[in-house]
Amino acid sequence: MDRRSGMARVDYSPQLKQLQVTVPKGFKYKDVAGLNERVLSGEILEKLRHGCAECLSGIPVIIKEEFDHEVNVDLESMQVIGR
């Protein structure tokens, strides 16, 4: 994900009851402020597989910037397996 793609990723965790919006590296909050409004209005929530806007009302929305990818780690062996 990078700034040129202009694509945000919206994820929901039923276990944590949190919605996370990840924006490409380099975006500033002012660039995505309208997205928060659209998420909270239900326009985006109604497209999710988990619940509906009314069901998800009141859940936290976390907006974060995508980090640079550094390495992959195999969780079973705890070995670094590449970049």
Task: Describe what this molecule looks like in 3D.
It is a single chain. The protein is an alpha+beta fold and 83 residues long. It has one domain. The chain contains one helix and five strands. It has a three-stranded mixed sheet, with helices on one face. The protein has a two-stranded antiparallel sheet with strand order 4-5. It is flat and about 45 Å long. The relative contact order is 0.21. The model has no long low-confidence stretch (mean pLDDT 76).
Ordered list of secondary-structure elements with their pairings:
Layout: E1 9-13, E2 18-23, H1 29-41, E3 61-65, E4 72-74, E5 79-82
Distance N terminus to C terminus?
A: 16 Å
What is the overall shape? flat
Lateral strand order in the biggest sheet: 1-2-3
Low-confidence stretches at least 5 residues in length (pLDDT < 50)? Answer: none
Number of helices: 1
Tell me the series of helices and strands, N- to C-terminal: EEHEEE
Largest β-sheet summary: 3 strands, mixed
